[in-house]
# Entry
Amino acid sequence: MKPRKSRRSKLTAARILTWADRYSRRTGAWPTVRSGPIPEAPGYTWMAVEAALRRGLPGLGPTTLARFLAEHRGVRNRARLPPLTEPLILGWLAADFDRTGIWPTSQSGPILAAPGETWSAVDRALRQGHRGLPGGSSLARLLARTGRRRNRRALPRLDLAEILVWAQFEARQTGLWPTRRSGVVAAAPAETWKGIDAALFQGHRGLPGGNTLAQGIRLHRNLLLNA
# Structure
């Protein structure tokens, strides 16, 4: 009775790549150690391929499936992702903004300027300190800290007296007192009258709430007339 050949002796780099290519065409993704049985090779699993690669194949030193596919097919190895830096991320943010006119968020999907990267992964790396980043940040905080976009979760406090100064400045410039539909605040371009009206009514950003822009301006004008 002839001895059975070991699975290891049947595996070659070319054969593994063929199976991986077929898996990719079939599923739209590349196999991992958890991808289960290999239809083109009954009796084999990707876990078994991983084990054989770790032992080393003829002409191929010990490696892993992820490293093997990264080397031969350019598949990103999640365990060895390239480092990130804030200047690099800011460059990607600017490229996305130039294309869409909107600053990306963690929900914006793939990064066109960096194939293989996603905004959610970059945001997670900024928050958790992965891939060479210090952590404790986010896409929103990075944009706010570098003056590109305000972080809506950390907006500066508002003061009613300051709001009325802005309203009076606008009235002098345009001849009309602003309303919630007046758009950008001329004296504070990062603010909008709609946002201020909402903060006045809801009590956000240090304001007491229960007020509106129209009510505040009406009271202010009455005081001016009676002064």
About this structure: Strands lie at 184-185, 188-192.
